[in-house]
Amino acid sequence: MKENNLNKNNDFKIPEGYFDHLEDRLMDKIENDHSLSLNKNTGFKSPDGYFESIEDKVFAKINERKTKTKVFSLYNKKTLITISAIAASLLLFFSIQSINHNNELNFNALDLADINAYIEQGNIDLSDTELVNLIGEEIDFTESFEDNPIDDEAVMDYLNNNDIENEIIYFD
Amino acid sequence: MKPSEEQIVIDLKSGKDINNMMRSIITLYKERLYWHIRNIVKNHDDTDDILQNVFIKVFQNISKFKGESKLYSWLYRIATNESITFLNKQAAKKGISNEELNTILVSNLKADVYYDGDEMQYKLQLAIASLPQKQQLVFNMKYFQDLKYKEMSEILETSEGALKASYHLAVKKIEDFIKSN
Questions:
Q1: CB nearest B56 (choices: A35, A58, A130)
Q2: What interface predicted TM-score (ipTM) does this complex get?
Q3: 1.10.1740.10, 1.10.3630.10, 1.10.10.60, 1.10.3720.10: which CATH number matches B1-95?
Q4: N or C: which end of chain A has fewer CB within 10 A?
């Protein structure tokens, strides 16, 4: 096919020399837009300069692990004695436990203070969104104490008749 | 100048200095893997953690890399597995399903300083979150990362035909989602 046949019968024109450097211009653009093409239209961003430091961060972690891990043999006499001593005492501990307390574990057996400490140590990690989800929509927040004040007498009655000492969770 | 995959594989086989090689691997793949992981877990900090773990795993297992599969598909596979394991752990920790977790992750984007997607991009993320996990992976890899079916097939160890079907199904569902929302 002859070159000049490619644009027969229409009036479209192109700037002079348009095709001469098209490859170079395109390659330039592709190379400059390298990260863009990896992250097309997502809206995600990464912090400035983030990619420059990854190598060092990874090597720092690898070295950290190397120094932490010590290899020791399981089969020397001393460790064998230590491990069997631990195993024996654990066995003894649990057998005594099961003799003394045959009752089942339940939530009522837990001290409130223990639960409190457990949460404070960060063992239960709930975000605000999760807390809201936990509460759900069943609880009606529109009924407040301001709209429906409880009269003093009822409060005094309640306090007199109920021992609430164990129900209170103290905060520092 | 970035090292090439071919050169790295040659160096690997010849047993050159492992630290130098590892540095080349990180340099060559850090951005691609970052965006791959980011598309799955959505926020920067988790992506950063996972990316570093991926490279540490690669470092620990580099001696097992025999060159049977391509280096990049091996790396992508580790990154994919690490990201999905991370999401599963998160869902288990919070006691919710993976679908619920996805929706939470996407809704967190609105407050994310490293996200500036417009309304349409945000909607797209919501639509992606509504897909089954495999379709999400396929869609992200094809649409956002422009991977070829052949490459995806090596990474996900699925046939090209199945991947094409997954992708078209995903696109269809996303279109429906966006039209109906």
A1: A58
A2: 0.74
A3: 1.10.1740.10
A4: C
